[in-house]
C-alpha cells in the first residue's frame, strides 16, 4: 500500500478564524511514527512559528499548494482513535464549537503543550566581535552580560524581569540581526509523569560483597546500604536512607564510586491507593431489580445503540442494579462508564464500586489534581481498568470496547457544560452509543421532563422500580405553612414542628439533614433608612454576607468587601441583613441545640481536596448529628441512620424566571426527602413553605412523579417549550451597553432575514427578545439575550454557525462577545 504523504491537522487555537483542517507534508524520516491521533509541532502562520496540532486524518494528496512540512512528533502513541475523531466532528456540528474546543474537552486538562522562549548566546561569536557590535547600546550590553552570567541562555520572561526595561524585545531582535543571539522555542507538557528515584547495585554481587567486607569498619553506613541492595534489586532513595540509617550524602559517595546506580521509575498517582475497601458481593435482587437487570443485560448482548430510562424511587436499589449489570459487562470483556452529577457523590459511589470490583475502577472528576486526572486517563487508555466513575467529563473516558454508559440522577443540570463546547453528557453518551454500539442507561427517581417524554413516546425503553428495597416505606412528608408560624409569633428560621422533630432525633441518636439551596449567611444587605441595597460594582446582583469572613461577597465574580455598619449612600447606621443562607442556619442550629454536633456542606466548606469525602465520612460514621447543606446533599447519599430531613424555604426556586422552575423544585424536594428512612427506621420529612397549596409542593409531598409529569407536560405543550421544541440562547455581552444592544438587534434582524430567505419558517417557531438577560451585568459586561424556539435541525444549526463565524470574522465586533447555547440549562 502506498504511504500516505499528507497529514490533516487541527491546530491548538480556539479562534473561529482558524477553525478548519490544515494540510501538512509528512517528512519521510518521520512517516513511520505519524499516526492519526498523535500531536505534532507544525510551522503556522506567516512567521512559521511552531504550533501544537492534532492529526485527525492521513491522505495521499491535497488540493492545497505550497504545503509546509511537519516539524516534529510529540506523542509516541495516539491520544485518541477514529471513534473519538467521529465524536469530535459531531460535537463541533452539534454545539457550534471549534475543532480544538471539542478536542480539548475529550482530553485530560493539563495535557497541552506550553511554549518557553529561550534567548541563547551563539557559540561562534567571540567576545571582541560582541563588544564591537554592541558598544553603542547599553541595553544590548546588559542583555549579553546577563546571558554570560547564566551559562549563555535565559528564558525570555526571566530575562525581562531582570532587565526591568520595556525595550528588551527590540534589543533581542537587534542582537538576532547581528547574529549574536538566537531564539529557541521549547515545548513542555504542564502535567508531567511522576517519578521516584531508585537505587540499584552498579557492580556484581561478588564485587559488592568484597566492598562490603572492606567497609564494615571504616564506612558502616555505606556497608549497610550495600547490604540492603544485595537483598533487594531496587530500593527508593527515601527508603534506602531510612532503613540503612544513613544519609543522601552516603548514597552519593557510593554513586561516585560506581558501586550503586540510580534510575527514575514512573509511578501512577492514584487518589484511592491508600484507601482500604472491604470487598462485597452482590445482594439478592428484588423482583423489580431482577426484571430491570434482565432487560438491560439482554440489550447489552444485542450490541446495538440503545437508551433505557430507569425510573426508580429513592432507595429502590438502583446502585445495586448498576453493580450487577456492570459485573456482567466486565465478564463479557467490555467496559462501563458511570456518571454522577456532583463530586460529593463520587466518594460513596467509588466506595461501592471499588468494594465490588477492586482496583479495576478509575475515578475521574475535577476534585483531583491535574496529575491524578492525567494518570487515571492513562490507566483507562492502557486498558488497566474496566469501570470509570466520575462527573461530567468522565463521559470521554477512552475505552476501546464500551458496553454501557450510566447517568445516575440523569435529570441534574450539572451534566450540561456552560463553557464551550456547551455539551450535555446525556447527548454525548447517546452519540458514543451510536458510534460504539453501547447501551445508555438513564437513571433517576425524578427524570427530566424531556427524557421521560422520550421514554413515554418510545424513543427510549422505559423500565421502573416503584418500591423501595425490601418494601421499606417512603418517608412521611409534612408541609408546614410558614405564614401561620409567623402569625403565631414564631419568627425563627425553624417551624415549631421541625424543632420538635430535630429534638426527637437528637434524643434517640438518629441523624438529621437540613436542606437550604443558598449558601452564605444573609442573601442581601439593605439600609432601612433609604432602601439602598449593597450590590456588586461589577455585576447587577446583590452582595451576600458571609459571617465567617465578615465579608460581603458576589457569587458571580468573587468581588469582596468588608461588612458595613453604615449605609454608603445616606451614612445611616440602620443597616440590616435580610434572607438566610446555610451559614445562618448553622448558627441558629448551634444556638438552639448547643450539645449537637453540626457540620455544613456547601461550596464554602468543600473548596479543599477531599473535603467532600471528609464531611461525608464523618457523617457516615455517625460522628455528626445534623448535616446542613445546599443541593450537593440533596441526592444520591445513602445514610441508614438519617431519619429526618428538613427542607427550609421549599418555594425558593419556584419563582425563578425559568420555564423549568417547577420541575427543579419538584426534583429537589423529592430527592432530598428521599435521603430519610433508608435504614430500618421509617423516615420523616418537613417541608417549610409560604406556598403550601402550590401544586408542585403538594405532589412532591405525595412522592407522585407521574402526577407532576402529566401536569407539566400539558403546560409545556401548550406554551411550546421543550420537549416540543429546542431552545437556543443567543447572548451578546460587552462593556459598552449601547454597542451590545445595537449588535444583538442587528444579529436578530439578520437571523430573521436569513430564516425567511431560506424558507426555514417551519423550522423556527418563535424568537423572543432581544431583552436584557435576567442578570443584566456580570464582571462589568452588560448582557442582552434573545431566545429562539426551533426544531432540532441541521439547517438551523448551520445558520447559527454562519452567524457566529461571520461575527468573529468581523474586526468591528472587537470588545463584544457572542455566544450561542443549544438548550441552555441556566437561563440567567
Q: What is the radius of gyration?
A: 32 Å
Q: Outline the low-pLDDT stretches.
A: none
Give the termini distance in whole angstroms. 56 Å
Shape descriptor reads: globular
Tally of contiguous helical segments:
25
**DSSP strand (E) fraction?**
15-25%
What kind of assembly state do the chains in view correspond to? single chain
The tally of strands reads 33
Strand order of the largest sheet: 14-15-13-16-17-12-18
Major beta sheet, specifics?
Answer: 7 strands, parallel
Average pLDDT level: 90
Structural class: alpha/beta
State the share of residues found in helices, binned by percent.
Answer: 25-40%
Structure description:
This protein is of the alpha/beta class. Helices cover 35% and strands 24% of the residues. The chain is built from 25 helices and 33 strands. Helix 15 (425-436) links the parallel strand 16 and strand 17 (439-444). It is globular, with a radius of gyration of 32 Å. The two termini are 56 Å apart.
At a glance:
With 828 residues, the chain is α/β, with parallel strands linked by helices. The chain is 35% helix and 24% strand.
Structural key phrases:
single chain; 828 residues; alpha/beta; seven-stranded parallel beta sheet; six-stranded parallel beta sheet; 25 helices; 33 strands; 35% helix; 24% strand; globular
Write the layout of secondary structure elements.
Layout: E1 6-11, E2 22-25, E3 39-44, E4 49-59, E5 72-73, H1 82-95, H2 99-106, E6 113-121, H3 127-134, H4 138-149, E7 153-155, H5 156-163, H6 168-177, E8 181-189, E9 194-201, H7 205-218, H8 220-231, E10 235-236, H9 237-244, H10 248-256, E11 260-267, H11 287-302, E12 306-312, H12 318-331, E13 335-339, H13 346-357, E14 361-364, H14 370-381, E15 387-390, E16 402-408, H15 425-436, E17 439-444, H16 449-457, E18 461-465, E19 476-481, H17 482-487, H18 496-507, E20 511-515, E21 524-527, E22 544-546, E23 551-553, E24 560-562, E25 575-578, H19 582-592, E26 598-601, H20 611-620, E27 626-629, E28 642-647, H21 661-673, E29 684-689, H22 695-701, H23 705-719, E30 726-734, H24 737-758, E31 764-778, E32 781-790, H25 794-809, E33 816-822
Parallel strand pairs: 12-17, 12-18, 13-15, 13-16, 14-15, 16-17, 19-29, 20-27, 20-28, 26-27, 28-29
Antiparallel strand pairs: 1-2, 1-4, 3-4, 3-5, 6-7, 6-8, 9-10, 9-11, 21-25, 22-23, 23-24, 30-32, 30-33, 31-32
